[in-house]
Design brief:
By secondary structure, the protein is α+β, with helices and mostly antiparallel strands. The chain has helices spanning 68-83, 122-140, 194-197, 206-220, 248-257, 269-276, 287-293, 297-320, 326-350; strands at residues 2-4, 11-13, 26-35, 40-47, 53-59, 92-98, 101-107, 146-147, 156-158, 164-166, 173-174.
Length: 352
């Protein structure tokens, strides 16, 4: 017997009771994890007569009290994976049925799940964010765009170089496709965007909410099942006091990712990726940042426009006085910060 705590599962797994996939050309090495409620078990296996390792995901619909909808979920995941070709999305290899259960075979990535509650420095979390956003950009560039619908720590693998891999496309949908009402509750509470909970159509901004919630879990070292502790009575994330070291710009970027109203989020992953790139994750607030953080998003553009004029005048006066000290640098940085917020506001209104 061995104790398995991967992907949130905790329990004893018999070492010698793995399925026999020799007729399908695979030999199970170990069990990677299981989702009891979903009726899924994931195995690490070898391709027979080869050094290639693969992941075999078992769908046991009888255990999950599932019916035809479960089979359709399995078929939909295969259909979507067959369309994708990205180095950080484990590729589809094979699928088969055995004794009433269904199996999906994918490429193996030697990277643990973020569900292991690993500790990361804020700068490392930014690197992970960029990596995931690059995957989302790829998905959203498909025609039509693909929405993952289940981004959370357990579905993201990260290797030692902080490369992120996105897995489990069982809930993924093509944007615009109709979704049965029964499927609205299949996501993970706390990570589902509000529009999905209320049955509204999903957009490219929907996955951004789930990613933002995931990043907040990482920053605060919060387990997925405890994410509700970070959400207040107004259904907004309240985590700032837990991570005072992050910069105001990164905090604002993150809060925009998890805006309850999707129109206030970034339009898509490309905009979120571009906005995040130049942001310093760790830092302290200056006067302008403190002012901005207290203003409602709709009023920021006006206030920041006035602040920019005042800042430019102050910079000019300082330069004319020929006193090259840190004040000039701080004012220039403040102006750059204001430009970032103004651009974000314009994106929100125009989508460009």
């Amino acid at each position: 017997m061995e104790l398995d705590v991967r992907n949130g599962y905790k329990g004893l797994i018999p070492l010698n009771h793995h399925p026999d996939f020799s007729k399908q050309g695979y030999k199970v090495i170990s069990e990677l994890g299981r989702n009891r409620e979903g009726g899924r078990i994931t195995y690490l296996a070898n391709v027979l007569n080869s050094n290639q390792q693969v992941v075999i995901k078992e769908f046991c619909f009888a255990c999950a009290s599932a019916d035809l909808s479960g089979v359709k979920t399995y078929e939909r995941e295969i259909e979507i994976l067959q369309q994708l070709n990205h180095s950080r999305i484990p590729r589809y290899i094979d699928s088969f049925e055995m004794l009433g259960d269904f199996y999906l075979v994918q490429e193996y990535k030697n990277a643990p799940s973020l569900g292991l509650r690993r500790n990361f420095h804020p700068e490392e979390i930014k690197q992970i964010s960029l990596s995931i956003l690059e995957i989302l950009v790829y998905l959203q560039k498909q025609v039509p765009p693909i929405i993952h619908r289940d981004i959370k720590p357990e579905n993201i693998l990260v290797d030692e170089q902080l490369n992120a891999y996105l897995v489990d496309f069982g809930l993924a949908r093509i944007q615009g496709a109709k979704i049965a009402l029964s499927s609205f509750v299949t996501g993970t509470p706390g990570f589902m965007p509000p529009e999905e909970q209320f049955g509204h159509s999903l957009t490219e901004a929907s996955d951004l909410y789930s990613l933002g919630a995931t990043l907040i879990c990482l920053l605060t070292n919060t387990r997925s099942v405890e994410i509700g502790k970070l959400i207040d009575e107004n259904y907004r994330f309240n985590f700032q006091k837990l991570v005072p070291q992050i910069s105001p710009r990164f905090r604002s970027w993150l809060m925009r990712m998890v805006e309850c109203k999707r129109k206030r989020r970034y339009v898509n992953a490309s905009f979120a990726l571009k906005a995040l790139g130049p942001i310093e994750v760790v830092g302290t607030a200056n006067g302008i940042d403190t002012l901005v953080s207290t203003i409602k998003p709709r009023k920021r553009a006006t206030v920041l426009g006035l602040a920019t004029v005042v800042t430019l005048v102050a910079v000019g006066s300082t330069l004319m006085s020929c006193q090259p000290d840190d004040q000039v640098r701080q004012l220039l940085e403040a102006t750059e910060c204001q430009r970032f917020y103004l651009n974000s506001s314009c994106q929100e209104k125009t989508g460009h």
